[in-house]
Specification:
The chain has 21 helices and 23 strands. With 735 residues, it is α+β, with helices and mostly antiparallel strands. Among the domains are: 226 residues, no CATH class; 288 residues, Aminopeptidase. It starts with a helix and ends with a strand.
Length: 735
Amino acid sequence: MRRALALVAACAALAFLCAQPTAPRGSDARPQEFSAVRALATLRRVLGDGAPHPVGSPAHERVRERIVEELRLLGLAPEVETSVAGSPASIAVVRNVVARIPGTETGKAVLLCAHYDSVPAGAGAGDDGSGVATLLEVARACKAGPPLRRSLVFLFDDAEECGLVGAEAFAARHDLQKEIEVVVNADARGTDGPTMMFETSAGNADLVRLYGAAVPSPRATSAAYEVYKRMPNDTDLTVFKRHGLAGLNFAFIGGLRRYHTQKDDLAHLSPASVQHEGDQVLAVARALAMAEFRPKAAGDLVYTDVLGLFLLRWPESWSLPASIAILVALILLAVVEIRTRVLRASALAIGVLRALATIAAAALAAPAVVHGIELLRREPEPWAGSPWPFEIALAAGACLAALAVARIPWLARAGFAASWSGIWILLAAVGVASAAFVPGASYLFLVPCAFAALGRFARREFVAIALPACALALLWTPLAMGLEQAMELRVPVALGLPLGCVVAASSFGTATRRALAVLASLLVLAAAWALAAPASTAERPAWVTLTHLEGPDEGASRLFAVTLGSPLPAELRAQAAFSATPERAFPELGSLPAGFAAPAAAAPADAARIDVLGTRLDGDARLVDVRISSPRGAPCLLLHLRGLVSRHADGGVVSLTIGGERLDDHQATRVFFGVPPDGVALTLRAPLDGRAEILLLDVAYGLPPSDAGVARARPDRCVPRGQGDQWVVARRAPL
């Protein structure tokens, strides 16, 4: 039993090591190869001083100009496509950069895309400077040869952070179905970690086969896409899939605490992650440009890489019958053992209960440990700055609980044969449910259960234990790592469950008191470390964003500190009289986060202008022509309309014109980015009694000088995130 446990632990460690990104290649790599060193040198030139470059900022203009220059240096002829486009949440004036490497044959092209804008708070080296650098280095490598059959189109799209608006603008200007066959998107949600191919389009059979054959070190799993589909995240590929295109999506997601902050810079961007992304994107781009490809092949595949060596895959339609067959085989094995008196039917029932209890104990212990420390510390998410002690405590606590429950005399009397059959019949049954409802994750159960059935025929306990349990460790460890990177420890049960399964599948003897004592000691030591560890550090900072709000009422200047659930640092409380609990500045705008509020010195600005240009009757309502603008040239305007008279589906917004382009858009709440000096013209249908109202927020990045003292007091362990510090001037106007 101990040998089996040691082998399973070794397999988990091997899976952890093999999940790390590949080593970066230097500038002396062959011209046809991807070099992270060359890509990062290009990125340094593109980013310049490393300042944030959100849409509408001067830094944004400079980054785009540098991308154009880099493409010209490669011998390409880039074009800048300017247009106005919108998404369900926002509208922006966008400038997409497009370049092409012609193929030797005519026909549809392969589109490679990455966005070049950043959030206002982020330097954007990872998100998505890494994608920009990847595409530029891929273009250089493809220009070096060999010639490609299909053309490659490189899209450096704008305003992704504003709601995928750049991709929407490209789709509106091009006949995608005639011009493009398949899309490859390169993005990042962090600064390090392995690059995953985490999303495909529907009917992915040909795409996944091509990916598995082309990429020398694949890192992909259909289970990751099952998780991604259930998260509120989108990338540019979402837009292209909605327009009927096939595609693959690549990203690395390590370093979440730096995501969308000033720490997303070149100093923290991992060259290994860039190399891993570049190797995969280049290999796929070349393969797509050279191969015969059916972008909508019937059916999907279930797939996963095995230690980054190869891609295990099969048709999704096979999972359910295969899972049922394996479950039946395991049940028949148990029936044979009952008839040959190797085990008793009553013992088998206890074995199933023992497996259930062991897994449940681990699954419940994981959140109990994490949230218990959280309660003792009296602060949310205390693991952010130092996750290791929490993760060690979670693992020790989950394993301790699982082994302690398995040691209960009534459950332990099931014996080896019943306990073994109990766990594998249980996992096989879960595998059938997974194949039916979450097919992309079915390999997590199907493969280990198949090895269990094979191992039991060996009639040796060591083989029966080690073979399937090692398969569990090899397949589940990378997924657990990805879940931790994606969600940190917000859902600890997601880590406790696989730990419980591995323990239940690899420990059939009664755990010794010494083993339990070692785990208990490790739990206590790790918990003590977690209680003392800093909740945030300069390298893993907490998120504290400041917003100065001017108006809309006279004398209503306030300063908001948005912490996204974390406590407000004492250093900021010492600077201003912040409220005890978070408040909402505008309850009608539910999408805006709540923050701790404090009175602030007035900082008037010539901003948020609402001009009523004319009004006329329209039956039982009035048509009012309005222009909203920002005399100070703020890069962002938020408009909220209340009390309009709706006709059909127009929501009361009859027309909207920006940058000389009239849009078919009728949303009552809109965010505008990159607004031109003449602003936005609207025609609104208002009631005769004048009860309609306009709320306009004029948003400039950075704080007014009057708040400099509070900004300086923000400790180094805290940074602004997302939209960053803002100076907002609000106006209300009746219609």
